[in-house]
Every structure is written in structure tokens, then in C-alpha cells.
Amino acid sequence: MKFDAFTADPSSLKTDALVVGVHEDGDLSAVSRKLDSAAGGVLKRLIGRGDFAGRLGDSLLLPETAGVGPKRLLLVGLGNRAQYGRKALRRAIGTAVTALTRTRVKSIALALDLPDRDVDGYVYGRLAAEVTVVALYRVNDLKSGRKPKPPALESVTIGPVSTAEAGAARRGLEDGAAIGAGVHAMRDLANLPANVCTPSYLARAARDLARRHRSVRVQVLDEAAIRRLGMGCFLAVTRGSEEPPRFIVAEYRSRRAGARRSPPVVLVGKGITFDTGGISLKDPPGMDEMKFDMSGAAAVIATLGVVAELELPLDVVVLVPACENMPSGRAIKPGDIVTSASGLTVEILNTDAEGRLVLCDALHYARRYKPDTVVDVATLTGACVVALGAHHTGVMSNTDELATELVSAGRNADDRAWQLPLTDEYGEQLKSNFADMANVGGRDGGAITAAAFLAKFTAGLKWAHLDIAGTAYLGGAQKGSTGRPVPLLSEFLIRRARSGASSKSR
Fold first, then answer.
1. I want to staple 409 with a disulfide (CB 3.0 to 4.6 A). Which of 314, 371, 432, 491 is the partner?
2. Is the pTM of this model over 0.85?
3. Does 49 qualify as catalytic in the annotation?
4. Range of 438's domain?
5. Is 370 part of the annotated catalytic residue set?
6. Same domain flag for 95 and 227
7. How far apart are CA 327 and CA 457, in angstroms?
8. What proportions of the chain, in percent to the nearest 5, are helix, strand and coil?
């Protein structure tokens, strides 16, 4: 897919389809008015007849339009002008691309007026590329029937942008295309069934990333190596499964010539490739969705791909403890006590609270990098879904500054998050009569007590936890990965790498 920006009059463009916007009540955008004049007033006539109302989400394809260069015109609704902002622009672009992929167009030009606030050339480019790439996603299903042909789209241009804004717009297109590809990568991994996407498969996916990018180095540790590291909590979870665990270590080193290496950002992703709950067995309805319990792993691997593609000037390490949580005669039982890599002991009260067990050993491993920041990403608790639904990722941190940074990145990336409290009282709920702590703290505040458990392994680290249980995938008839929080994580890292850029352009 090729992306570019144009500065010329869109009515003269040679493209298969030109997309222009119309606000509600027939309110033409500035670009639409110029185009309407060149096309002999066709847009005003259509609107006057009531053929197009300009509501957000509406579109109308005009396959033949005299007087202009493009072969087709597509009208998209921009909604109420007073409420037109970044979110409406994103939806309009998605509507346009989705409508045109039902045709066989190979080239699209987006000529949409920009909102008066929050959107410049960079943001326009980034939205256009990211939304386009995500809209082209097709589920990697394993159906035996003949698959439909993929969309024919080959190029997208955006504008009209000023000459001064063209460079920023092209940088936005580059960033957006990489983030969109990252969303694809996460969805492809998470949508696979658990008999395909095993811990070993995740390891191969990481190695494939390293083969594509020389800046990425991958090491995969087997069960014997995990045991030598003393990761007793991780090994306790995998004990009931016949599928061997893998601990994936992927390192991206930026090409900052001559610069002293800075402490890296470490991303830790929960990689439970299937979660039955173990001996604390889950109810059968909906258990098929537990193939998505490795969404944290898929997210951090995919985000590393974005970092490598953009060659960001910062070092990033990805850690993935990958295994299954299965019931068997060898599986851990409620009441068992295990020893973590840090030396702290844990009483297992519920074997379905396994994600925090694999993560705590990975968080301890992160210390060897003397990291600047550690962020773990996990479909950790149903309690977070109850608290925030499918709209916001839960953010908990031992540093309010880091939590605020992540929430702000999610807001700018339209991948929203919300900070939940993490005070000492929640950790008190994890007391055990027989070990240093229990792995659950009761029903109340379940999402936060899970984070409080992880916090016990992050003393001295600048750390945040993202609970993506409600945002990483959809269930039921819409079952499938959403690709979140790849946009949030990408924005977080892009901001850090380009700290000198203007706040509006990030």
C-alpha cells in the first residue's frame, strides 16, 4: 500500500475515486464547494433532492461525474459542523474506505476538510493511513470454502495540504501505516485457535519479526532454562499442560550512532495461549474465548514491530511468558504454595488467577535491564470488564506520572484508557496465613488487587499495568481481536522517541 499527500486542486486529480465531505443539512465543506463548482453543481442538486443528508456514517458513490478528473466521487457524511472533530474525521475516513473496498478501485484520494481543533497535517495523515490499513483487515479464518478476493486498493493520497504541512502529513502517513500494520499483526495472532497459536508458535512469530528487522534480536527460553531462572510461579501455571512453555525475550536496539545507550522501555505481555482456569475450572459457556488470553503477548510483539518499522530512537525490550493453563493430575491445586523468581512465596487460592503468576516472574526478569520504564499488558481480570466495560483499558501504576502519560497516549490514539487507584489498602487483601501473599484478594476491587499483587514485584521500578480484558477482543457474534492496545502503546513510544515534537503533532 502506497500513501502520499497532495497539494493541488483535487478536482484535477487522476484517481479512481475522490472522497469529499458533506456536513448535515447540506452544509458543504470548503473542498466540496470547489468540487461542486467544477462539476456543474451536481452535489447541490443531490442534496437539494434529499439524496444525501450528510449524517456521520453515511456515504453515496457517484460513479460518473463530468467536469472533474477523478473517475468516481464518494460523498461521506461529516455530521454536525459544530461537533466535527478528530473522532468524526476518523469515522468519515473509515466509512469512505469501507465503501470503496466493495468496488475494485485501486487508488483513492481523500479530500476532507479538517476540523478547526486537534487536527493538523500530521494527525490527518496518521488517521488516514491507520484507518485505511485497519479497514482492509480480513480475519485469518481457517474455513475450507473459497475465500473472497482481497480489496484491490493500492494507493491512498490525502489533501489538499499546504506545502508547509506536506512533510508532516507524510510523516503521519508513515506512522499511521506502521500502527495499522501492528494492529493487523496483533489481530492475526490473537484470532488464531489455541491448537495453532501455542507458546512455540508465539516464539516463532517473534523470530519471524527478528528476521524482518535486523534491529530486533530474539531469544527463546525453554522449560529447562525457565527452571534455571527460578521462575516457580510461571512453572506452576504450565504444570498441568502437555504443551511446553516458552519465555520469549525480544530486544530492539535503536541505531543512535555514537550515543550512549539509554535505559530501555520494557513491555511485558501475558501469553496464556489457552486458559481453562486449571483446577478452578471456568464455566464452559464462553471458554472458547480464552484463546484470546494471550492478547497481551500479541500486543507487545506487534508493538515491537511498529517500533522497528519506524526505527524509533529508543531501546525497547519485550518479555512474554507463554504457556497454557490446563487441568490435569499434574496441575497446581488451590492451597499449593510456590516460590517466585524473586524469592517471594505465593499461596495459590485460585488457579484461574494465573496471569499474575506468569507476569510476576517476567517482571522480576525485567530488572536485569535496569529499565527506564516497565509496562505489563494483560487480559488479567473479569473485574476490569465489570468496572470499565469494553470502552477503556484499565491503567494502574506505582507512579501517577506514568499512568497519566499512558492515559494521554490512549486519548491521542483514540485507544482510550482510564486510571484506577492503586493504594496500599488493596495489597492488604492479599495476606496469607502460610505464604508471603495469596494470589487473589477476594471479590472486591478484583482488578486492583490483581495489580496490587504485581506491584509487590516492582519495588524500585517505574511500572504500570494495563488490564485489557475488556478492550482486547469482542465476544459473541462479533468474536474477534480488536488490535487494542497497539495504538496506545505505539503512541506512548512514539511520543517518548520524538519528545521534541510539538504536542499537537503527537
1. 491
2. yes
3. no
4. 181-498
5. no
6. no
7. 27
8. 40, 20, 40
